[in-house]
Amino acid sequence: MRQKASSTLIDAAHEQSWSRVEGRTLAKPEPIFTQETFRFFRDLARHNQKTWMDANRERYQDCVVKPFRRLLEATAPAVLALDPRFDTAAPGGRNFSRINRDTRFAKDKTPYRPQMYLKFCAPLPGDGESGELYAGVSAKTVTAGFRIYAGSKYKESALAQIAFPRVIAESSWSARQKKRLSGRYESYWYAVEKGEWKEQAGWPAAADDWKKLRAWVVRRKLPVTAATRSSFASEVGKVFRDVYPLLRFTSLKD
Q1: Cα–Cα distance between 144 and 239 in angstroms, integer?
Q2: CA quadruple 53, 54, 56, 59: dihedral positive or negative?
Q3: Is the Cβ–Cβ distance between 221 and 143 less than 8 Å?
Q4: Sign of the torsion angle spanned by Cα atoms 158, 161, 162, 164
Q5: Are strands 132-138 and 19-21 parallel, antiparallel or unpaired?
Q6: For the segment 37-58, what is each residue's pLDDT rounded down to a tens digit?
Q7: pTM for this one?
Q8: With helix as H, strand as E and coil as C, how does the chain read?
Protein backbone atom coordinates (compact mmCIF):
# COMPACT_ATOMS: atom_id res chain seq x y z
CA MET A 1 0.00 0.00 0.00
CA ARG A 2 2.86 2.41 0.79
CA GLN A 3 4.43 1.84 -2.63
CA LYS A 4 1.12 2.48 -4.41
CA ALA A 5 0.54 5.68 -2.43
CA SER A 6 4.10 6.86 -3.11
CA SER A 7 3.78 6.25 -6.84
CA THR A 8 0.48 8.14 -6.97
CA LEU A 9 1.92 11.14 -5.16
CA ILE A 10 4.99 11.27 -7.40
CA ASP A 11 2.98 10.98 -10.61
CA ALA A 12 0.51 13.63 -9.47
CA ALA A 13 3.25 16.07 -8.51
CA HIS A 14 5.40 15.64 -11.61
CA GLU A 15 3.07 14.98 -14.53
CA GLN A 16 5.03 15.47 -17.73
CA SER A 17 2.37 15.90 -20.38
CA TRP A 18 0.62 19.13 -21.36
CA SER A 19 -2.85 19.49 -19.92
CA ARG A 20 -5.80 21.85 -20.19
CA VAL A 21 -7.68 23.31 -17.21
CA GLU A 22 -10.72 25.50 -17.87
CA GLY A 23 -9.58 26.11 -21.42
CA ARG A 24 -6.05 27.20 -20.44
CA THR A 25 -2.93 25.37 -21.55
CA LEU A 26 -0.53 24.52 -18.73
CA ALA A 27 3.14 24.13 -19.65
CA LYS A 28 5.36 21.33 -18.51
CA PRO A 29 6.99 21.93 -15.13
CA GLU A 30 10.43 23.51 -15.35
CA PRO A 31 13.51 21.44 -14.44
CA ILE A 32 14.72 21.86 -10.87
CA PHE A 33 18.40 21.93 -11.78
CA THR A 34 20.11 23.54 -14.76
CA GLN A 35 23.62 23.42 -16.16
CA GLU A 36 24.38 26.45 -13.98
CA THR A 37 24.40 24.20 -10.91
CA PHE A 38 27.09 21.97 -12.40
CA ARG A 39 29.03 24.99 -13.66
CA PHE A 40 29.02 26.46 -10.15
CA PHE A 41 30.44 23.25 -8.66
CA ARG A 42 33.14 23.07 -11.35
CA ASP A 43 34.12 26.67 -10.69
CA LEU A 44 34.13 26.09 -6.93
CA ALA A 45 36.46 23.10 -7.37
CA ARG A 46 38.89 25.31 -9.33
CA HIS A 47 38.66 28.32 -7.00
CA ASN A 48 38.23 26.64 -3.64
CA GLN A 49 38.92 29.68 -1.49
CA LYS A 50 36.83 31.74 0.91
CA THR A 51 37.39 34.94 -1.05
CA TRP A 52 35.93 33.33 -4.19
CA MET A 53 33.00 31.87 -2.27
CA ASP A 54 32.24 35.19 -0.61
CA ALA A 55 32.15 36.87 -4.02
CA ASN A 56 29.80 34.21 -5.37
CA ARG A 57 27.32 33.88 -2.49
CA GLU A 58 24.39 35.14 -4.55
CA ARG A 59 25.22 32.70 -7.32
CA TYR A 60 25.46 29.89 -4.75
CA GLN A 61 21.98 30.73 -3.47
CA ASP A 62 20.48 30.81 -6.96
CA CYS A 63 22.27 27.78 -8.44
CA VAL A 64 22.50 25.44 -5.44
CA VAL A 65 20.41 26.38 -2.42
CA LYS A 66 17.16 27.26 -4.19
CA PRO A 67 17.16 24.19 -6.49
CA PHE A 68 17.87 21.85 -3.57
CA ARG A 69 15.01 23.37 -1.59
CA ARG A 70 12.76 22.77 -4.59
CA LEU A 71 13.95 19.15 -4.74
CA LEU A 72 13.13 18.78 -1.04
CA GLU A 73 9.61 20.09 -1.60
CA ALA A 74 9.11 17.91 -4.67
CA THR A 75 10.27 14.64 -3.09
CA ALA A 76 8.82 15.12 0.42
CA PRO A 77 5.37 13.68 -0.46
CA ALA A 78 6.91 10.44 -1.74
CA VAL A 79 9.15 10.15 1.32
CA LEU A 80 6.27 10.70 3.74
CA ALA A 81 4.23 8.10 1.87
CA LEU A 82 6.99 5.59 2.63
CA ASP A 83 7.06 6.53 6.30
CA PRO A 84 5.34 9.56 7.87
CA ARG A 85 7.98 9.70 10.60
CA PHE A 86 10.59 11.11 8.24
CA ASP A 87 11.43 14.72 8.99
CA THR A 88 11.03 16.60 5.72
CA ALA A 89 11.45 20.04 7.28
CA ALA A 90 14.34 19.54 9.68
CA PRO A 91 15.40 22.76 11.42
CA GLY A 92 18.76 24.30 10.68
CA GLY A 93 18.90 22.91 7.16
CA ARG A 94 19.61 19.38 8.35
CA ASN A 95 17.95 17.94 5.24
CA PHE A 96 21.02 19.14 3.33
CA SER A 97 24.70 18.37 3.62
CA ARG A 98 27.06 21.19 4.52
CA ILE A 99 29.08 22.61 1.66
CA ASN A 100 31.72 24.07 3.96
CA ARG A 101 34.37 21.62 5.10
CA ASP A 102 36.08 21.35 8.47
CA THR A 103 39.62 21.93 7.25
CA ARG A 104 41.06 20.36 10.39
CA PHE A 105 40.12 16.99 8.94
CA ALA A 106 40.51 17.71 5.21
CA LYS A 107 43.78 16.35 3.87
CA ASP A 108 43.76 18.75 0.92
CA LYS A 109 42.79 21.71 3.16
CA THR A 110 40.13 22.94 0.73
CA PRO A 111 37.42 24.81 2.69
CA TYR A 112 34.45 23.74 0.53
CA ARG A 113 32.96 20.61 -0.96
CA PRO A 114 31.95 21.04 -4.63
CA GLN A 115 28.81 18.94 -4.07
CA MET A 116 25.63 18.84 -2.04
CA TYR A 117 23.21 16.16 -0.83
CA LEU A 118 19.53 16.14 0.01
CA LYS A 119 18.90 13.62 2.76
CA PHE A 120 16.02 12.18 4.73
CA CYS A 121 17.09 10.46 7.96
CA ALA A 122 15.35 7.61 9.69
CA PRO A 123 14.15 8.54 13.19
CA LEU A 124 16.45 7.21 15.90
CA PRO A 125 16.30 8.19 19.58
CA GLY A 126 19.39 9.81 20.98
CA ASP A 127 22.39 11.15 19.09
CA GLY A 128 23.39 8.03 17.18
CA GLU A 129 23.76 7.91 13.39
CA SER A 130 20.94 6.41 11.37
CA GLY A 131 20.26 5.44 7.77
CA GLU A 132 19.41 7.99 5.09
CA LEU A 133 17.68 8.24 1.76
CA TYR A 134 19.73 10.70 -0.26
CA ALA A 135 20.24 12.41 -3.61
CA GLY A 136 23.50 14.12 -4.49
CA VAL A 137 24.75 16.48 -7.17
CA SER A 138 28.40 17.34 -7.84
CA ALA A 139 30.35 18.79 -10.74
CA LYS A 140 30.31 15.56 -12.75
CA THR A 141 27.97 13.11 -11.03
CA VAL A 142 24.38 12.66 -9.92
CA THR A 143 23.52 9.87 -7.49
CA ALA A 144 20.60 8.73 -5.38
CA GLY A 145 20.13 5.89 -2.96
CA PHE A 146 20.62 4.73 0.61
CA ARG A 147 23.53 5.17 2.98
CA ILE A 148 24.25 4.45 6.61
CA TYR A 149 27.25 5.39 8.74
CA ALA A 150 28.27 4.42 12.24
CA GLY A 151 29.66 7.85 13.00
CA SER A 152 31.99 8.49 15.91
CA LYS A 153 29.81 6.59 18.41
CA TYR A 154 29.36 3.13 16.93
CA LYS A 155 27.55 1.65 19.93
CA GLU A 156 24.87 4.36 19.71
CA SER A 157 24.38 4.01 15.95
CA ALA A 158 21.62 2.18 14.12
CA LEU A 159 24.28 -0.08 12.62
CA ALA A 160 25.17 -1.41 16.06
CA GLN A 161 21.75 -1.31 17.72
CA ILE A 162 19.49 -2.47 14.88
CA ALA A 163 21.29 -3.60 11.72
CA PHE A 164 23.89 -5.97 13.15
CA PRO A 165 21.54 -8.00 15.39
CA ARG A 166 19.01 -8.33 12.56
CA VAL A 167 21.57 -9.46 10.00
CA ILE A 168 22.91 -12.08 12.40
CA ALA A 169 19.38 -13.33 13.07
CA GLU A 170 18.41 -13.29 9.37
CA SER A 171 21.58 -14.21 7.50
CA SER A 172 19.92 -14.48 4.07
CA TRP A 173 18.63 -10.89 4.09
CA SER A 174 21.68 -9.32 2.43
CA ALA A 175 21.71 -11.92 -0.35
CA ARG A 176 18.03 -11.27 -1.09
CA GLN A 177 18.63 -7.53 -1.34
CA LYS A 178 21.59 -8.11 -3.64
CA LYS A 179 19.44 -10.24 -5.92
CA ARG A 180 16.70 -7.61 -5.93
CA LEU A 181 18.85 -4.53 -6.56
CA SER A 182 22.30 -5.41 -7.89
CA GLY A 183 21.32 -5.13 -11.55
CA ARG A 184 20.51 -1.43 -11.16
CA TYR A 185 22.38 -0.32 -8.04
CA GLU A 186 26.00 -0.15 -6.96
CA SER A 187 26.89 -1.32 -3.45
CA TYR A 188 30.05 -0.69 -1.45
CA TRP A 189 30.89 -0.58 2.21
CA TYR A 190 33.66 0.42 4.59
CA ALA A 191 35.42 -1.77 7.11
CA VAL A 192 37.68 -0.64 9.90
CA GLU A 193 41.03 -2.43 9.80
CA LYS A 194 43.83 -1.40 12.14
CA GLY A 195 42.06 1.87 12.83
CA GLU A 196 41.72 2.78 9.14
CA TRP A 197 38.58 2.84 7.01
CA LYS A 198 38.93 0.71 3.87
CA GLU A 199 36.41 0.63 1.05
CA GLN A 200 35.06 -2.79 0.09
CA ALA A 201 33.33 -3.36 -3.22
CA GLY A 202 30.09 -5.32 -3.40
CA TRP A 203 27.55 -6.35 -0.79
CA PRO A 204 28.35 -7.15 2.85
CA ALA A 205 27.29 -10.74 3.31
CA ALA A 206 29.05 -12.78 6.00
CA ALA A 207 28.73 -12.11 9.71
CA ASP A 208 32.41 -11.13 9.76
CA ASP A 209 31.66 -8.42 7.19
CA TRP A 210 29.03 -6.90 9.42
CA LYS A 211 31.29 -7.04 12.46
CA LYS A 212 33.78 -4.80 10.65
CA LEU A 213 31.25 -2.69 8.75
CA ARG A 214 31.12 1.00 9.66
CA ALA A 215 29.39 2.41 6.58
CA TRP A 216 27.33 1.10 3.68
CA VAL A 217 26.15 2.80 0.50
CA VAL A 218 23.72 1.47 -2.10
CA ARG A 219 23.28 3.96 -4.90
CA ARG A 220 22.22 4.47 -8.46
CA LYS A 221 24.36 6.65 -10.69
CA LEU A 222 22.33 8.84 -13.01
CA PRO A 223 23.54 10.80 -16.02
CA VAL A 224 24.09 14.49 -15.38
CA THR A 225 21.33 15.23 -17.87
CA ALA A 226 18.85 13.42 -15.61
CA ALA A 227 19.05 16.23 -13.07
CA THR A 228 18.14 18.81 -15.70
CA ARG A 229 14.94 17.02 -16.72
CA SER A 230 11.60 17.98 -15.22
CA SER A 231 11.11 14.30 -14.28
CA PHE A 232 14.15 14.26 -11.97
CA ALA A 233 12.21 14.45 -8.69
CA SER A 234 10.04 11.58 -9.86
CA GLU A 235 13.13 9.49 -10.68
CA VAL A 236 14.58 10.21 -7.24
CA GLY A 237 11.29 9.20 -5.64
CA LYS A 238 11.41 5.85 -7.44
CA VAL A 239 14.95 5.25 -6.23
CA PHE A 240 13.86 6.02 -2.67
CA ARG A 241 11.06 3.50 -3.00
CA ASP A 242 13.52 0.82 -4.18
CA VAL A 243 16.02 1.32 -1.37
CA TYR A 244 13.62 2.10 1.47
CA PRO A 245 13.55 -1.60 2.58
CA LEU A 246 17.29 -1.30 3.30
CA LEU A 247 16.72 1.67 5.54
CA ARG A 248 13.76 0.05 7.26
CA PHE A 249 15.71 -3.14 8.04
CA THR A 250 18.86 -1.38 9.25
CA SER A 251 17.43 1.65 11.03
CA LEU A 252 13.80 1.33 12.12
CA LYS A 253 12.96 -0.68 15.20
CA ASP A 254 9.42 -1.59 14.13
Answers
A1: 7
A2: positive
A3: yes
A4: positive
A5: unpaired
A6: 999 999 999 999 999 999 999 9
A7: 0.85
A8: CHHHHHHHHHHHHCCCCCEEECCEEECCCCCCCCHHHHHHHHHHHHCCCHHHHHHCHHHHHHHHHHHHHHHHHHHHHHHHHHCCCCCCCCHHHCCECCCECCCCCCCCCCCECCEEEEEEECCCCCCCCCCEEEEEEECCCEEEEEEEECCCCHHHCHHHHHHHHHHHHCCCHHHHHHHHHCCCCEEEEEEEECCEEEEEECCCCCHHHHHHEEEEEEEEEECHHHHCCCCHHHHHHHHHHHHHHHHHHHHCCC
Rounded to whole angstroms, how far apart are CA atoms 57 and 46? 16
Q: Convert the pLDDT of each residue in 8-17 to its tens digit.
A: 444 444 444 3
For residue 126, give the amino acid letter: G
* Structural contact between residues 91 and 16, judged by C-beta atoms closer than 8 angstroms: no
